[in-house]
Amino acid sequence: MALVPEPRHAGARRGGPHRRVVRHLDRHRRPGAGPRGAGPRPQQLEAQVAARTAELRRALESLRAEVEQREQAEANLRQMQKMEAVGQLTGGIAHDFNNMLQGIAGSLEIAQLRAAEGRTAEVLRYLEPARQALDRAAGLTRRLLAFARRQRLEPKPVDADALVAGMADLVRRTVGPSIRLELHLRDGRARVLCDSAELESALLNLCINARDAMPEGGRLTIGTEDVRFSAADLVGQEGAAPGDYVEISVTDTGNGMPTDVMERVFEPFFTTKPIGQGTGLGLSQVYGFVRQSGGVVRIESALGRGTTVRVRLPQHAQVHMVKEPDTAPVPNEAGPDQTVLLVDDEDVAREAAAERLRELGYRVLEAADGPAALHLLDGGARIDMLVTDVGLPNGMNGRQVAEAVRERRPGIPLLFITGYAGTELPPGSEVIDKPFELDTLARRVQAALARR
Predict the structure, then answer these.
(1) Could you tell me if 403 and 428 are in contact, meaning their C-beta atoms sit under 8 angstroms apart?
(2) CATH 1.10.760.10 fits 339-450, yes or no
(3) Strands 414-418 and 431-433: what pairing?
């Protein structure tokens, strides 16, 4: 008898329980998915990429907005700090200048009264304090220009060791007997190229600050050293070039400074001294002078550990230096029929200068601006020299006036006078800074005409 196999269970014929599980999973497969074992369809990938791109775009826009908000906040903070510094600067200038102007005004008023009363012997007694106040005002403007790196320097090769050694007696008298001065000089041959008078002033300012930091006495050390800086050492130091430098350090054993004070020490008119005991311009003047001279200034301090200020100036090849006379000679009388064209928009200043030149025998033509000066020349006036202020009104500055005059009178000697040379002058120009003594002007005019 033939055996016929029993038919299997229906579920078994279709794969049994395992097959049923697979069908269950198929029913729950994501819409649009391909067959089992296949990857996502192209349209699904595109949708996922688009969604992710949109998400990243939203994150990027959010980040940009956050950066813009932070930059705006930083800009607002910088503006606030700038306005605070401007307010401090203008307040300090107004305070100091008003004090000086009061001294000048009071002295001149008393001198005028004594002259009117016929007590002429007492007039000079009150004119001298007025002159002293004027000198202090001139010094204040120089310190401000030094901070702004706008003062006109007269750089010459300077032996830093000799300069420091030569200042030793002055520094000792300034700091007093309770502070011991020590000099640690490198005894090198290298020179620095800078304005020696401004370097002396900067070092004296540092010594005075050191003295004030040691009211109970202590030790003040001034040292010099040859140092070399690479480009990496000078990152962030605008105007300073890699190479060899001479470092002049001033170190005290005072109380030192906290970090918040160190961050502001170079700001003009910032001071921790009591009112009347400091202008707050000492360190800012040092900073401006050093940077304008192509150097770097560093300050190191900590509470209880004293302070060191390091002035670093570029080395310069040794050059023979001619010593200038200590006292200026009295200007000589003018040569026969020498005419000077004097251009200055400040009437009082121009008239006083013209009067002194006339006393010495010069013929002086006066003009308040460039067009007036050129009108004199175009009218046939003969001149032997031009003396002109740099900052002039009515469309022509001093340089433009000089160029126009030399077009009409080639080779004529020029002398610029200025309170602030914001205009760039030709290299090698003769310049005299206001305020100046009238005899200084006369000597410069005499020397220029003698070289003609």
Answers:
(1) no
(2) no
(3) parallel
Distance CA 198, CA 111 (A): 34
Question: Do residues 224 and 160 make contact, with C-beta atoms less than 8 angstroms apart?
Answer: yes
- Return the axis-axis angle of helices 347-359 and 438-450, rounded to nearest 10°: 60
- Looking at domain 156-231+242-316, its CATH class is alpha beta
Most confident of 18-22, 79-83, 110-114, 377-381: 377-381
pLDDT tens track for 364-414: 999 999 999 999 999 999 999 999 998 899 889 999 999 999 999 998 999
CA distance 175 to 168: 11
Distances (CA, A) of 10 to 6, 16, 412: 12, 8, 124
Angle between helices 282-292 and 123-147 (to 10 degrees): 60
Under 8 Å between Cβ of 316 and 192:
yes
